Hints:
elongated; six-stranded antiparallel beta sheet; 492 residues; 32% strand; 26% helix; alpha+beta
Amino acid sequence: ALPNTIVAASILPFVNSTALLSFRLTSRGCYEICHGHVVGSTATQQKHEEESEALWCLALVRDYRFEKGDELLSMYKSLRCNPDPDDEANPFLSTSDVFTASTAFISWKHWRKIDTRLRHDENGQRFHVVDPGAQVVGPYFLRAASLWRKIEQWCSDESMSENIGPAILSSLKPGKPFGASLVEDGYQDGNLSAFKAVYAFYSGQTSISSGIRESGSRLLSGLFGGYSVYDTLSHNCWCPPRVLSSGWDLIVAKDINNMKVTVFDSRSGDVFIYISTPHQLGAIKTKAVLDGSGDDQILRWFENHADRLKKYSVGNMAPDSAKAILRYPSLNDSTNCSRAVTRGVEVVASSTYVVEIGGMFVYSIRMRLLEAEDGEDYMSPEERGFDTCQLVSRYWRITQGGEVGEVRGEGVIGCYPMLREGGIQNFISEDGGHSFYDDGEDYGEEKYFSYQSCTGGGDGEMEGYLQFKAGSIQGAGEVFDVRVAPFPLKLP
């Protein structure tokens, strides 16, 4: 018989994992070789344990694409999967299922369980997968767990997500081991490694249309948020995958108005955004991840969003519309968002570039009257000279490519909001500020008046001021200017 060391170090590394499992069941001696349980001196036991660990680490590299250069600890991270294929109420994988195994074999064994679930249909029958790229990639699943954990934490942090976070969490569908269902749906074998990882934790959102009501306010709980400008409302949701007629492309996110659809191309691993024009569906095609390539693009796209969530705003899509994630930089992104306070009135401003409306910058302006708990910028009614103030007009100075443009106008998008500490009231004028009526919306505890508009051109910046009147616009109060600090107009 060959010495155990030769078997473990020179022969078994060249045996595939299925054969290795069969070998370990052949005899107690073979089992001990595979797991390092050999009787002998402490030094001998340690050597055999190290050889066993190296053997199963090699299996993790070979079967589940861990890198040889990975820190050893990363190979010991694994996931416990839901073993019941009939359990649709609970996710296939959960972010709480990540654990650190005590041995490389235990880590490998749990990845094997995930792999088995992904390669069998709901009746337990194994289905044929042509493309080896469709296998389980352990590091991709760990990355997916990390990004979903970030999303869960953001949704659970009321200071960041307000009441949108719980609405998003409740809309997410349990993760599924996608594979057989896509084959049945006409999917042609492609590179599904990163795709499977993302959908294993959550498999899309329930249908979202005009918004749900929570504490008197309407909410749009699409995971990817959006913007509203004039008559255009864009709001994007995470979708259960739907195979397109090509057999290679799968819809993974879409706009509630079908203006924008995000598609995963399983052949290249790329994620594309298809944008519709008034004359043609999907007329514009652009890559969702602009830098790099490879089969992990859907993961990178999702990771980018998970990281940006804490930099986005949460607020009303328009003065009279639902609250949602607004895809504009917030004060957590001080490079791309500005803030200024004048006489207790705070204005927060930022912009985002939008392809689907002809390549325009959609900018967001949020204004409120600070309260005592807001700190040193607060001014009491006696200090500022009024209890309420109402918007009268606006002025913008836009600098792009060395050219300076100026815009002046009454109100903002036909609105003349009145600010008070802890709340707002909005008035509408349809005759240029000569007569006003209450818009009839119940803003509840909403403190900010938010609105969006747009401007064209290239890279640059925008600044200006909003003119307010102490008291109300029809009263005799003082008129004063509230600064809007410069904020960037930045092309992607």
